Amino acid sequence: MSRSGRLFLLMDALRGYRHPVTAARLAEQLGVSERTIYRDIKTLGDLGAPLEGEAGIGYRLKAGSFLPPLMFGVDEIEALVLGARWVRRQGDAGLAAAAQSALARIAAATPKDLRDDMAETSLWVPIGDDASAVSDAHVQPVREAIRYQQRLLLSYCDEQGRATERMVWPFALAFFEGKRLLAAWCEMRSAYRHFRIDRISAVQTLAERYPVRRGVLLKSWRAELGIREES
């Protein structure tokens, strides 16, 4: 591999981390030595790349920096297309349109126009008899409440068929095949609870933020369930 190609791969690898990543981890990911990583990091810095960090602590791209898109490999193209096709089936018209728009922008903005390659990808998400079950009018308002950290008043039906109202602080939404699961802090229970979207009969978004940052709730919830934090 040429040195320029290796520098592109290093920048692409750094894109995938929100927190500083060590030279050892980057070296393992790219299949080179730590010494090579340190040398390439210095080269990128000299070229004006928006990097921050130091040896022994780790490196990352500066927050808010913009980088032009790089070339995508065959596996990456297939992953993007398959992911977008899956999103289109999730009962949220806003996400479906956004996935299609994102693919179009990625394809047109790369050095090589990838639209033909994406159109010819032969990986598909099957549309079965449950296609109508995944469509739910409450997915989008719940997702928007998570984004803006707003309290939600839910009219909910539990497993025993009992109707209840819950005031919750929504912070995560899981997309499973055939159902959606909302993770939220429940004011009534003073604890984390999970609500199936298909059991919600009505949603009222309150024009006020809940008193704890979403990131704090998410971190605490992960710790309680023993879920490893993503990079």
Describe this structure in words.
By secondary structure, the protein is an alpha+beta fold. The protein has helices at 3-15, 23-30, 34-46, 74-87, 93-109, 115-119, 139-148, 214-225, and strands spanning 51-54, 58-61, 150-157, 163-176, 179-186, 191-196, 200-209.
Q: Separation of termini? A: 27 Å
Compute the number of helices: 8
Helix content: 25-40%
| Content-based structural category | alpha+beta
The rough form would be described as globular
Radius of gyration: 22 Å
Give descriptors for this structure:
about 230 residues; alpha+beta; five-stranded antiparallel β-sheet; two-stranded antiparallel ribbon; 8 helices; 7 strands; about 25% strand
In short:
This protein is an alpha+beta fold. The chain has helices spanning about 5-15, 25-30, 35-45, 75-85, 95-110, 115-120, 140-150, 215-225, and strands at about 50-55, 60, 150-155, 165-175, 180-185, 190-195, 200-210. It has a 5-stranded antiparallel sheet. The protein has a two-stranded antiparallel ribbon with strand order 1-2.
Topology:
Blueprint lengths: L2 H13 L7 H8 L3 H13 L4 E4 L3 E4 L12 H14 L5 H17 L5 H5 L19 H10 L1 E8 L5 E14 L2 E8 L4 E6 L3 E10 L4 H12 L6
Antiparallel strand pairs: 1-2, 3-4, 3-7, 4-5, 5-6
Helix pairs in contact: 2-3, 4-5
